[in-house]
Amino acid sequence: MNARDIVGTAIQSTLRSKLRTTLTVIAIFIGAFTLTTTSAIGTGVSDYITAQVGAIGSADVLTVSKAADGEAATEGDGPQPYDPDAASAGAGGGPSGPVALPGAGAALTPDDVAVLRDIDGVLAVTPLAQVSPDWIEFADNGRFQVSVNIAAGVSPADLAAGSALDNATDESQILLPTSYLENLGFDDADAAVGETVTFGLTDYLGEAHEVTATVVGVQNESLLGSGVGLNSAMADELETITDTGKPDNIATTYISATVQIAEDSTPEQITEIKERLADEGFSAQTLEDQLGSFQLVINGIVGVLNAFAVIALLAAGFGIVNTLLMSVQERTREIGLMKAMGMSGGRVFALFSIEAVFIGFLGSALGAVVSIGIGIPLSSVLSQTVLSGLPGLDILQYAPASVITVILVVMALAFVAGTLPARRAARQNPIDALRYE
Predict the structure, then answer these.
(1) pLDDT digits 0-9 by tens, 17-38
(2) Three-state secondary structure along the chain?
């Protein structure tokens, strides 16, 4: 009996006892279905988190701020002594001076920006100043409150329509969040692209100003911050107006800065640059640093869900053992006849092992197919209903590699489960087996 005959015989033998095989396949199906679904959830959520974090950084960009004082950070004794010489992270100006951002620490000064530009490995530095327009309006449809995403101009955008901001142009450009469209009077994202909107803001002395900008794109809402994105020209114009009339003794400060490094930087080179920044009193984070804590939580949740699927698969493994042990007992004389005709113990072992693997394949493939068949339309429905507040989230994403991995893992588990019955069949004495009643 050659390999092809062994495989064919194994499949026929598996289908001989349809009820017993069906029950075993159902047990495997439950575990494979659960494992495929949880894997898809993990992929969908991870991709969404990656996209959200990617909206505030990219692989070749470091987000830099003033490092907290090491001693103060570890004391844990409440507020630290006030340092009048330390700049405060401001969110705009007014007659009373800069307004501190909630949770903001020491801000960057122009001198700090100059130091950043001189650090080895730094290609470009973009300081981020907080500007706060009072309102936004389109075509006399009414004025609405507006917030600004200060990092949008230096970060990749998750666009619903249009194009990214151009920081090389002198034209004032903005990215509108999708949540602004209806109130401003746009029918959809495409309708907003190319239109001109008006911003109102107040300078340091309280005088009102109006500024216009072109909508070049519409950006999906982000979990990590929403608001209108500004290109460099628009940000500079708003900052200039905001600082009009500011006394000379009020220092210019920045909330943070983005530092451009070589796109092909190795992890070791990035670590060296971060160490140089730390030596100068700065704290730097890469996209991977920002993503790490989110990814850890997601991996933990998916890991727990996968654990339940594995438990179901282990239970199914015992079902495979029971099914094949009964099959060996029922086919004792058949096994004896095969060995008497010259079939080796290794081929008998292979015959029953293939039966186990085939059962595992049936259950896992069926579980994966049903999971995909249910998950794809379900994900679409959820994104338009329950999860409509999280644009861009496709909760169930079936990566081909993950689905194939699940099937192979289940087949491997089935093979291990079938080892005991296969060994018992391979060790049968042909004379005793032929006498078996």
Answers:
(1) 778 778 888 888 988 898 899 8
(2) CCHHHHHHHHHHHHCCCHHHHHHHHHHHHHHHHHHHHHHHHHHHHHHHHHHHHHCCCCCCEEEEEECCCHHHHHHCCCCCCCCCCCCECECCCCCCCCCECCCCCECECHHHHHHHHHCCCCCEEEEECCCCCCEEECCCCCEECCCEECCHHHCCCCEEEECCCCCCCCCCEEEEEHHHHHHHCCCCHHHHCCCEEEEEEECCCCCEEEEEEEEEEEECCCCCCCCEEECHHHHHHHHHHHCCCCCCCCCCCECEEEEECCCCCCHHHHHHHHHHHHHCCEEEECHHHHHHHHHHHHHHHHHHHHHHHHHHHHHHHHHHHHHHHHHHHHCHHHHHHHHHCCCCHHHHHHHHHHHHHHHHHHHHHHHHHHHHHHHHHHHHHHHHCCCCCCCCCCCCCCCHHHHHHHHHHHHHHHHHHCHHHHHHHHCCCHHHHHHCC
Measured between alpha carbons, how far is 375 from 394 in angstroms, rounded to an integer? 10
pLDDT tens digits, one per residue of 254-270: 888 888 888 788 888 88
Predicted TM-score (pTM) of the model is 0.58
